[in-house]
Amino acid sequence: MANDNAHDPFNARATFASSGKTYTYYRLAALQEAGLGDVDQLPYSLRVLLESVLRNCDDFIYTQQHVKLLAATDPTGPKLEHEIPFMPGRVVLQDFTGVPTIVDLAALRSAVRRLGGDVSKVNPLVRADLVIDHSVQVDSYGKPSSMHTNTDLEFERNRERYEFLKWGQNAFDNFSVVPPETGIVHQVNLEHLAGVVLVKGDVVYPDSCYGTDSHTTMVNGLGVLGWGVGGIEAEAAMLGQPSYMLIPEVVGFELSGKLKEGTTATDLVLLVTQLLRKHGVVEKFVEFFGSGLDQLTLSDRATIANMAPEYGATCGFFPVDQKTLDYLALTGRSDAQIALVKDYCQANGFWRDDSKVSKYGAVLKLDLGDVQPALAGPSRPQDRILLADMKGSWGLDRVNTFKHPEPKATADVFYNDQTFTLKDGAVVIAAITSCTNTSNPAVLIGAGLLAKKARALGLDVKPWVKTSLAPGSRVVTDYLEKSGLQAELEALGFYTVGYGCTTCIGNSGPLADQMIEAITSGDLVAAAVLSGNRNFEGRISPQVKANYLASPPLVVAYAIAGTVDWDPYAEPIGTGADGKPVMLADIWPSNAEIEKVMHTSVTRAQFEDRYQDVFAGGARWKELPAPTGDVYDWQPESTYIQEPPYFIDLSPEPKPIMPVTGAYVLALLGSSITTDHISPAGNIAKDSPAAKYLVAHGVQKADWNSYGSRRGNDRVMTRGTFANIRIKNVLAPGKEGGYTTYFGPPEDLPTPVTQPYDSDVKPQPGEVVSIYDASVKYQSHRLPLVVIAGKDYGMGSSRDWAAKGTFLLGVSAVIAESYERIHRANLVGMGVLPLQFLPGQSAQSLGLTGRERYDIAVDDGLQPLQDISVNAVAADGTVTTFTTRARVDTPVEVQYLRNGGVLHTVLRRLVQK
Questions:
Q1: Which residue among 8, 254, 555, 768 is buried most deeply as judged by most CB within 10 Å?
Q2: What CATH number is attached to the domain comprising 539?
């Protein structure tokens, strides 16, 4: 760790005054004055990295060479293969990924105690805040009691997890929990947790954060550099281990002009996502600049920053300016903090200055006036569809994607006291959800105004639509109620269902039995329209195949229309009370109307009131009992929280990296395999290995809950890895879901070698079984496994269980055409070797079938990005030899791999001290 700023080889330490106090900071200009580089031309996001290595420079972890490399970076030149360390100022967690993070910290304490170490050393060394926002599910909707019902069920289902988190809040220093019923982590981060600048002692430095959710990037809109990491990398940061990263390329995105009437920030971000995905920004920073920034509210900027994972970038950064200060004032930050942000940023080159345009590796441009209303779908956020083209696009997808040459319709369905005919394209879920949009008052007020206008004309939502409103913070409810628009939304069925991510993460809750029967028996392509950021197949609901992202006003509009088979410009949205057709244009609110309501309804006092005691929680949380003690008392019978097996019988010294010999293929997958496909997520399917485990432990189906809620139990999660209902494994021909063909030897052993995993399925060679059951059999014979995949392997949410489950299934290596950044790092962090086909090569081009056995020539001399030879030996003895690139990108990652993972590395260091 840095030595408390005692080392200052560049004479950069200086002071400045703010609100009558004197503070210390590390001047970036000192580097320019010393001739080390033109710091003024660096993108603002790179300046944050530069300040971090400058401030922490100790000639050990953070070296003078790191400072010089960053200061001298030419953003327009070729990408430099130089790594730098980075330690964020803080870490933010959500409960799905946060629970296993705290489980791992608790397991570290247990392991340290077993090895005779000091358990008090296991504490977050940087501030860590966890927001419980991923566990509420839309079981009840469309009623005044829905929020209460869903929250009761949330606490009932998640009591063990919540008791464990409450134990963690008391047991660990520097760790806080924002209880349920409060808001979504990214919106709470934006509205309250972020400081824009941080202070340690008297030293001021830029706020930065890692988050265990990919949409941590939302806070980039506030000028805070942050991005999503896996729980593994977050845990390392919490334990004082910096991340090592190559100096990133920064793509500049120039915005000009102004949004025209009728367009929203959602429309803008869908276009930005499409443009950046097309350009290619994976593993790059994106930084926004230009005169158009003055026309965007801070909430608009946050909407764009939020979806950096969807356009593929590490972050989408906006520099600090007056809009930042205005937002800090609106959201209740203190006058002293606001002054400190301004004074520090202006003193140290972090204040947006359009007279000094930064240099970028590439520049994209967009006139905001070119943005048009749009949606995205039916399964990828980058697949933008102009609203004007929506009906035609749906028709093409119905035929080409969903293979329905003619529209299908069911027999009459009786539901909610009404009889109707359900057809292809019926919108069965309409959800105002996700921090992407619920953080933006303009689009939420727009939805409320559209509802008000629709009601005034006598329109209503179709009876087959499951409606929900899940605000990202309590403040949203305050301003909707103050404006009178909450009642208008409720009258159309958009009652508040909870304060959490809900539909966007797959917690849409079950559809009614009558609806499921109609969709299933009629083989219908049902649709969902949601104001979220993710619409991957199988994510939103098992019965919904076509999922479209849209602004909150469009969510309400499609709930009224009841179908995506509708032309919003040429066809009526419905018939008014006077019997006349009503067009969408008749009920669409004007920008002036939205601005007027925002001005009178969104106030500073609302934020001050809601956040003054944010960690206390409501009555349910306060009454919740919590275990005590520095070391967690693991309960063997628990089906929610278990001590993971990572550190059981851990040797004090790591073993050398060894070649992989005779590995079988567990899965041969295509491109765009998301972490939703890999990691257990959503509902636990009947007859799945996870369901069998729960039943064997006395858990009734009604209490299975979701995979996300059981992330603290490796026994459940390992059984659910690669179990997504839509995953397609070439080794399970003709089947969808988590299946594979077992190719191993036929002998059975009395008990598997790897505990605590077992299975009552004893597959024979050539038999198609669940991936979990095949894994148990392979591991019982101590046989290594590999996974082979196409492009963008591991794209999507930063789910650490996508890597943990892979490791616990016995996978030694993954061979893919390319990786999403977070998942690649997580694989290394769990000791799994990521290999990449050379450009132009793939499993298909090499003729690999997945039925071969694989020898991987890796050894303890592994170097970062080394070429590794692989032999694929077919059953007839034919050998296909090819070269792969080891995506172990830095020397520290080699250490992690050698130790068996980042946590193993940390544990050994803790015990050795």
A1: 555
A2: 3.30.499.10
CATH number of the structural domain spanning residue 854: 3.20.19.10
Distance, CA of 498 to CA of 490 (rounded, Å): 14
Spatial separation of the C-alpha atoms in residues 341 and 562, rounded to whole Å: 47
Question: Helices 95-114 and 146-171 sit at what angle, rounded to 10 degrees?
Answer: 30
Domain boundary among 61, 86, 111: 86
564 and 482 together in one domain: yes
Do the domain assignments include residue 33? yes
Residue 324: strand, helix, or coil: helix
Query: 186-219: per-residue pLDDT in tens?
Result: 999 999 999 999 999 999 999 999 998 889 999 9
Beta strand residue intervals within 567-611, DSSP E:
574-575, 581-582
Instruction: Assess if residue 838 is contained within a domain.
Output: yes
Asked whether residue 525 falls in the same domain as residue 590, the answer is: yes
Shared domain check, 672 and 540: no
Last residue of a domain, one of 564, 582, 611: 611
* Helix, coil or strand: residue 469: strand
Q: What is the Cα–Cα distance from 678 to 498, expressed in whole angstroms?
A: 28
809 and 747, same domain (yes or no): yes
Rounded-to-integer distance, Cα 736 and Cα 726, Å: 6
Residue-wise pLDDT tens digits, 755-809: 678 898 989 999 999 999 999 999 999 999 999 999 999 987 767 899 999 999 9
Are 554 and 561 within 8 A, CB to CB?
Answer: no
Examine the domain organization and report whether 476 and 545 are in the same domain. Answer: yes
Mode of pairing for the β-strands spanning 83-86 and 243-246? antiparallel
Q: Is residue 440 part of a domain?
A: yes
Task: Verify that 599 and 672 share a domain, yes or no.
Answer: no
**What's the CA gap between 470 and 460, in Å, rounded?**
20
Report the number of distinct structural domains present in the chain. Answer: 3
Residues 665 and 541 in one domain: no
Q: What is the DSSP letter of 260?
A: P
Question: What's the angle, vertex CA 368, arms to CA 364 and CA 374, rounded to 5?
Answer: 100
Query: What's the pLDDT score for residue 749?
Result: 60
What average pLDDT is seen over the chain? 94
What is the gyration radius of the CA atoms in the chain, in angstroms? 27
488 and 605 share one domain: yes
Give the single-character DSSP code of 529.
E
Residue 568 is given by DSSP the state T
Least confident of 39-48, 129-138, 228-237: 228-237
Residue 912's Cβ-side half-sphere holds a number of Cα atoms within 13 Å equal to 10
Long-range CB contacts (< 8 A, 24+ apart) of 73-76?
Answer: 73/37, 73/42, 73/46, 73/247, 74/359, 75/41, 75/42, 75/43, 75/46, 75/249, 75/250, 75/358, 75/359, 75/360, 75/361, 76/359, 76/360, 76/361
In a domain, residue 169? The reply is: no
For residue 876 the two structure tokens come to 């007839």
Beta strands per DSSP E along 491-536? 526-530
Alpha carbon dihedral 666, 669, 675, 676, in 10-degree steps, equals -100
- What is the biggest distance separating any 2 CA atoms in the chain, rounded to whole angstroms? 80
Alpha-carbon distance of 737 to 770, in angstroms, equals: 9
Return the axis-axis angle of helices 441-456 and 591-601, rounded to nearest 10°. Answer: 110
Q: What is the pLDDT of residues 67-101, one digit of tens each?
A: 999 999 999 988 777 889 999 999 999 998 888 89
The stretch 296-312 carries a mean pLDDT of: 96
**131: which strand partners?**
94, 178
pLDDT bin (cut points 50, 70, 90) of residue 526 is: very high
Expressed as residue numbers, the domain containing 523 is 408-611
Q: For 313-337, how does the pLDDT look when each residue is reduced to its tens digit (9 = 90+)?
A: 999 999 999 999 999 999 999 999 9
